[in-house]
Specification:
98 residues, mainly beta, four-stranded antiparallel β-sheet, 1 helix, 4 strands
Length: 98
Amino acid sequence: MSSQAKPDARHKILQVQDIKTRFHTQDGTVHAVNGVSFDLHEGELLGVVGESGSGKSVTMMSLLKLIPMPPGEIASGKAIFEDKNLVQHDLIQLDTRS
C-alpha cells in the first residue's frame, strides 16, 4: 500500500482560493475573512463550522457577492465555478446550463 495521496478524479464543482474580505469602518479596517481556500467536488457536501464571528457568513456572502460595498470589500481571491470566477462575474447573468 502506497502512502502517497491519490489524485481526486471526481469533477471539481467549486474551487475557492485565498478569499479575503474586509470592512472599512470609522475605527479602522476589519479583516473579516483572511485567506479562505477549499475545493468542492461532485457528490460532496460542505459544512462550514466555527465560533461566532469567525467569518462563516462573510465567506459565503463573499462567494455570492452579497457583501455591501462600501463598507465591505472583497480584497482578493477567486471562486471558480464552471470555469467562471464568481468574484468577478455578475452571478445573476451567469448561465451555467449547457
